[in-house]
């Protein structure tokens, strides 16, 4: 019997993790990863904050909750095996008033239902012991929340893929997907072609468009939101010891500005969330008329914007005003000033948005014949990547 052939579209952490998992279970399979950029981890994976999410927020029983907890375990094992940094710096969710304290209790219950270890609510005095420069009326402490370098994790897994006989083809932009007997043909922008019996699409910011090539439906649509960060100056990095996060407000679609140490020693302040003017646009000067037309023409975006336009205006003001941006973080770290930060990295989040105007919250995976597509994989997808790979490969084999 000839080996099964697989094509995985997307060279971010999810695509490489899935290729690795296939080869773990089927060492003789022919696996090819297709990435349109000249390098792996070029977009969301390479612009990730590096947080290993413990599973505090997610609805118990959801794919996010289950795969996040499993993913943490697998990720820690992989980092140990490859000698990659894995720093359990811990995290505090800080409540600023009594309303937020009430929401904090709800998150604590959800975290415990998800099996997050060591979480507990603390008062302002103990918060000061953990984070001397942080102020709040209460906090949820997650001591095992960690940070890693997800691009480094992706490269390590890619080495495993190639060592096991898999192929990784960069600069291969898939522009066509069509059936050809018992196989599927994936054609590239430069005339290349790959044939495979099973196809997995992990196209991130292009997820809906690549899925459409295989005949999948247009709902949900990817809407790109850019997140901008500032970095603490080296002499001010001691303002935080671990991750400092706000309590999520269910009225708003995004989390808000927080402080995030990285394994390279930097400390990020952010992000905001502004509509990106291109799917792979990391600044205001990066504009794609096609991408904007797709966003504005999507009924779901118009419904979303009608509900959240005030938040959108606030986020845009933070983008152009450093004082306003830093002011959001100063509520938690009162000593922080605009002079303490310099411009930092930017990323673009691929957020699936339904035709009803609602953000798709959970991971979403669809199947169209031999083609399986990850249609929505926002945070904590990087944390969950190895568990998502297990889940996807189980679906392929089932």
From TrEMBL:
Its cofactor is FAD. Keywords: FAD, Flavoprotein, Oxidoreductase. One of its GO terms (molecular function) is (S)-2-hydroxyglutarate dehydrogenase activity. Belongs to the L2HGDH family. NCBIfam families: PRK11728.1 (NF008726). Pfam families: DAO. This is L-2-hydroxyglutarate oxidase LhgO. It comes from the Bacteria. Residues 6-395 form the FAD dependent oxidoreductase domain. InterPro entries: FAD-dep_OxRdtase, FAD/NAD-bd_sf. One of its GO terms (cellular component) is cytoplasm.
């Amino acid at each position: 019997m000839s080996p099964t052939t697989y094509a995985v579209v997307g060279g971010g952490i999810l695509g490489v993790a899935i290729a690795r998992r296939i080869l773990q279970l089927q060492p003789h399979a022919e696996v090819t990863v297709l990435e349109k950029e000249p390098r792996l981890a070029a977009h969301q994976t390479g612009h990730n904050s590096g947080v290993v999410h413990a599973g505090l927020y997610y609805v118990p029983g959801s794919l996010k909750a289950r795969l996040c907890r499993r993913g943490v375990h697998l990720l820690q094992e992989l980092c140990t095996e490859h000698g990659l940094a894995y720093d359990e710096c811990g995290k505090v969710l800080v409540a600023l008033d009594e309303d937020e304290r009430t929401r904090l209790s709800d998150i604590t219950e959800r975290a415990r239902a998800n099996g997050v270890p060591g979480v507990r609510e603390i008062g302002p005095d103990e918060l000061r012991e953990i984070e001397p420069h942080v102020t709040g009326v209460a906090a949820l402490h997650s001591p095992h929340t960690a940070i890693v370098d997800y691009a480094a994790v992706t490269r390590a897994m890619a080495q495993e893929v190639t060592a096991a006989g898999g192929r990784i083809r960069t600069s291969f932009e898939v522009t066509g997907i069509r059936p050809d007997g018992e196989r599927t043909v994936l054609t590239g922008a430069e005339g290349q072609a790959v044939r495979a019996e099973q196809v997995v699409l992990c196209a991130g910011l292009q997820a809906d468009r690549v899925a459409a090539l295989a005949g999948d439906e247009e709902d949900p649509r990817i809407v790109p939101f850019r997140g901008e960060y500032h970095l603490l100056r080296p002499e001010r990095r001691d303002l935080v010891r671990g991750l400092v996060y706000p309590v999520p407000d269910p009225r708003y679609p995004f989390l808000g500005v927080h402080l995030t140490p990285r394994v390279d020693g930097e400390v990020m302040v952010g992000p905001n969330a502004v509509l990106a003017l291109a799917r792979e646009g990391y600044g205001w000067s990066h504009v794609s008329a096609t991408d904007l037309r797709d966003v504005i023409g999507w009924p779901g975006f118009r419904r979303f914007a009608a509900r959240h336009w005030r938040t959108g205006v606030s986020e845009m003001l933070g983008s152009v005003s450093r004082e306003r941006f830093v002011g959001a973080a100063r509520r938690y770290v009162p000593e922080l000033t605009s002079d303490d930060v310099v411009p930092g990295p930017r990323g673009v989040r691929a957020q699936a948005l339904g035709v009803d105007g609602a953000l798709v919250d959970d991971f979403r995976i669809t199947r169209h014949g031999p083609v399986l597509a990850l249609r929505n994989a926002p945070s904590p997808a990087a944390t969950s990547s190895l568990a998502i790979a297990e889940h996807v490969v189980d679906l392929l084999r089932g």
